[in-house]
Specification:
The structure holds 2 protein chains of 2 kinds. Chain A is an all-beta fold. Chain A is about 0% helix and about 45% strand. Chain A has one domain. In chain B, a hairpin with a 2-residue loop joins strand 5 and strand 6. In chain B, helix 3 crosses helix 13 and helix 5 crosses helix 9. The chains are: A mainly beta, B alpha/beta. Chains A and B meet through strand 5, strand 6 and strand 7 of A and helix 4 of B.
Chain lengths: ~120, ~375
């Protein structure tokens, strides 16, 4: 049965916060594994409830490409998750440090990109 | 367990069909398949539709074009793997004894304009596979020329495929692929699948059904195995925003299918993979076990995986009908095209006896089917 306040909860957990700008994840309390975006239950199907966690603000670039004038990359956070993301700027370097930037649209929606630290 | 055969198949060419053509191309591909198998719609007791796009007409509505016979109508939606997923379900229905003659049709042609994958919150697919390529180039020494060798092979293989989207009027060269428009470095336009739509259908039959049909065009294909898996947790797992997924899913699903068929990778004559971008074929060749990890580039340089590969190198031909780059990736029908093209190759070349068809759905599910040439049933 759904919880009584289910209708009051958002459809999914927020993936970022604005101040300070960080991505939000969750941690399996048994294995310590960290997930992004945040998830309620463990990945092994045992339905362990995961704990909310604020992810590191910076990681390292592990791959990148471009499409038109936009640049994209994979940023590995020290917490474990690999984030696929748009990159700010044009000159990118594998293994360089990248820091998250969170933006808010007029409707309140949060989005994120990474820029070279 | 009951054996399941592809008794016949048909398709409409892969094209950029206008909005609203879904019912028509579903109907025409289905009729072509039924006629190829020598049956009518009244003979089948079930229809399984494989559809990927959200605005393609639902199978329950499109199937009315074929007749109102009381047949079971089912629709399977599983992203790019929808076609093979529909076949997978139909095979179970025949094995269970519930049905013995089933029409499976993969089709996609939306009624209204689709939001792009990017608008649905995903990064553009080409960028994700470009990063696969960039990583492999850096870690394994792959060169853009190797990606172009795969693409040129598949463009040229598509030249003889009447259903292919891209039928070049000349032999496509590696230099031509490299010189085509850069999309997302290192992937060029000719290394990437085109936007397209289409429909392809097969008629699946049990032994019993085949024994009462008189107009089968032998040889046909037996579905020796069908396997399906979803993803498992991997290091640096990407949950959302990617349609690439963990490559390991291909290795485990192929292994399950080959074990079920009691064959080895070296036994395969024909292989078709989810090669929407040239980098995919390099990776999947190794995950399937056609060669050791890192050997694909050198084998490509020696002409492996192309026409005559089995005789010259002992390795299956890959994407022999053009694959997703040459024939195109119309969505739901793509996997069904793989089966149909394998069937046609069995009919055209007596040496080809064993084929493997592979598709991924959103990088999160994998379907693999092994086809075996069947000269006559009962033998």
């Amino acid at each position: 049965m759904a919880s009584e306040d289910a209708a009051e909860e958002p459809g999914r957990e927020p993936g970022a916060q604005l101040d300070p700008p960080r991505l939000l994840g969750s941690r399996d309390p048994d294995t310590g594994e960290v997930y992004f975006p945040p998830r309620r239950y463990s990945v092994d199907g045992r339905l362990r409830e995961c704990m909310p966690v604020v992810l590191s603000s910076a990681g390292t670039l592990s791959s990148h490409t471009s499409l038109g004038k936009r640049h994209y990359g994979e940023v590995d956070l020290p917490d474990g998750p690999r984030i696929i993301t748009e990159l700010i700027g044009e000159d990118h370097q594998i293994n360089a440090a990248y820091v998250v930037q969170v933006d808010q649209a007029e409707d309140g929606t949060l989005s994120w990109r990474f820029a070279r630290a | 367990m009951r054996k399941v055969y592809i008794a016949g198949g048909g398709a409409v060419p892969v094209r950029a069909y206008p909005l609203g053509w879904g019912r028509r191309i579903m109907r025409d591909a289905s009729v072509a398949a039924l006629r190829d198998a020598g049956v009518t719609f009244a003979d089948v007791t079930a229809v399984y539709g494989g559809v990927a796009h959200p605005f393609t007409p639902r199978t329950v509505l499109a199937a009315k074009e074929l007749g109102l016979t009381g047949a079971l109508i089912q629709q399977v939606v599983n992203a790019s793997a929808s076609g093979l997923a529909a076949v997978h379900e139909a095979v179970q229905a025949i094995r269970s004894g519930a049905h013995d003659l089933i029409l499976v049709v993969g089709y996609d042609a939306p009624e209204q304009k689709l939001d792009s994958i990017s608008a649905q919150g995903f990064l553009p697919p080409v960028t994700l596979f470009a990063m696969w390529a960039e990583r492999r180039m850096r870690e394994m020494g792959t060169k853009p020329e190797h990606l172009a060798m795969v693409a040129a092979k598949n463009w040229n293989n598509a030249r003889g495929n009447p259903w292919a989207m891209r039928r070049a009027d000349h032999e496509v060269t590696v230099a031509e692929v490299l010189g085509s428009r850069m999309i997302a470095p290192p992937l060029t336009s000719m290394m990437s699948t085109p936007w397209c739509l289409g429909a392809a259908a097969v008629v699946l039959a049990s032994d019993e059904a085949l024994s009462r049909l008189e107009d089968i065009r032998y040889p046909i294909a037996r579905i020796a195995a069908t396997a399906a898996e979803s993803e498992r947790m991997t290091p640096h797992h990407i949950f959302e925003g990617s349609i690439v997924g963990p490559s390991e899913i291909t290795r485990t699903t192929v292994r399950a299918a080959l074990e079920a068929a009691a064959v080895e990778p070296r036994d395969l004559d024909l292989v078709q993979v989810h090669d929407a971008f040239a980098i995919e074929e390099l990776v999947y060749n190794e995950l399937i076990g056609l060669c050791e990890p890192g050997d694909t580039e050198a084998l490509l340089e020696r002409g492996a995986f192309g026409p005559g590969s089995k005789k010259q190198h002992g390795i299956a031909e890959v994407s022999f009908a053009g694959g997703l780059i040459g024939r195109g990736h119309p969505g739901g029908p793509t996997g069904v095209f793989e089966l149909l093209e394998t069937l046609e190759r069995f009919r055209a070349a007596a040496d080809d006896r064993l084929g493997l068809c592979h598709m991924l759905g959103a990088g999160s599910v994998c379907f693999v089917q092994v086809l075996e040439r069947a000269e006559r049933v009962p033998a």
